[in-house]
Amino acid sequence: MSEQQATKRGSAPADGAHSRSGKKPRAAQPQTIAPAAVVKQEREEEEGDATQSSSKGEASQSSSEGEASQSSSEGGGGAVAAATGLELEAMDEPQINVTIGVSLLHCHACFLPLKPPTFKCEGGHVVCCTCRGKHGEACGRAAAYAACRELDAVLLDAKLPCQYQEFGCRSLVAYYQAADHDGACPWAPCSCPAAGCDVLAAPARLVEHFRDDHRWPVTSLRYGDACRLPVPAPAQGCHVLVGEGDRSVFLVSPCALGAATAVSLVRVRAGGDATTAAQFKGVLWVELPSSKDKLVLTMPAVRSSDLSDGFSAADKNMFLAVPPVLLHDASGEAPELMVCIDEPAGDAAANSTPPARCSGRLQ
């Protein structure tokens, strides 16, 4: 094929030359193929590097998470086991109610409830620890004793509700401690001293009764500080004082004593002064705001009472008599009654009066 024929079939003319057909040739495109390929290759390499780095990072993260998960699983196994053990320990053991002969829980020597530790003689008699000597005089086979540890466990766990449960006490008491608890239970009921009133309730609930049904004023008392009150008139009834902290209940009771007024102080508590609770000390005095003269009554021990026999200050051995000259002073000033009660040292919180449950009914 000749050179002319090749040119006619479309061969590109040389730069700056026109084809023999007379048409203007198209401008030649810049030669950028090689640079584009290089750029593309570089981008592909960068993307590949980034993908590889990302893959390595994800693999490293996955490895770290796997190691952390494995460590957590390995370390958490013991923690879960420990937590499960604590939960099992915290679970309350099932309880049952049983009926048992009382003689099985009483000492063969003193006939009182058995108090751990207990012992059994060779004759099969179970006695308290302190009764072994006494029992030896009555039993010919009491030369040796064996400890009854299984029975001790039963005695420690054999509990019954307080006998004053209906008055608000929710305690479960070991059988051998029941008598001591009942003698000191703050929920033991007391009577309302108002004439014609037969309400019987725990001291905390009596406060609500005094306030709501008899309209007796109730004042909070801080031990060791003087509490200022008006001298109560006999027709107005008592003034109720409630100790801060232990919630002990006191009554300031007035009554007519001729033309004078007798005022006395009593602590509302079942068992009276026979309880083992420590005694409060009290001071009562009457004064006029403009005078320094005082009538003072010092009470070495504030009397406790369940008020079952009522409460009239004049019937008691200790009261403060306020003469009419103070009750009806010429200046027109009303006398003030000051009450100061000292809390006994070592009076345990267990001997205190609990707060009232407002929703509970009076018994």
TrEMBL record:
One Pfam family cited in the UniProt record for this chain: Sina_ZnF
Compositionally biased spans, kind Low complexity: 53-73
Segments of this protein annotated with the region Disordered: 1-79
Domain SIAH-type: 157-215
GO molecular function: zinc ion binding
PROSITE patterns recorded: ZF_SIAH
Keyword Metal-binding (UniProt): yes
Record flagged with keyword Glycoprotein: no
Alphabetically ordered keywords of this record: Metal-binding, Zinc, Zinc-finger
Function statement: E3 ubiquitin-protein ligase that mediates ubiquitination and subsequent proteasomal degradation of target proteins. E3 ubiquitin ligases accept ubiquitin from an E2 ubiquitin-conjugating enzyme in the form of a thioester and then directly transfers the ubiquitin to targeted substrates. It probably triggers the ubiquitin-mediated degradation of different substrates.
Record-given protein name: SIAH-type domain-containing protein
Species per Swiss-Prot/TrEMBL record: Urochloa decumbens
Origin organism lineage: Eukaryota, Viridiplantae, Streptophyta, Embryophyta, Tracheophyta
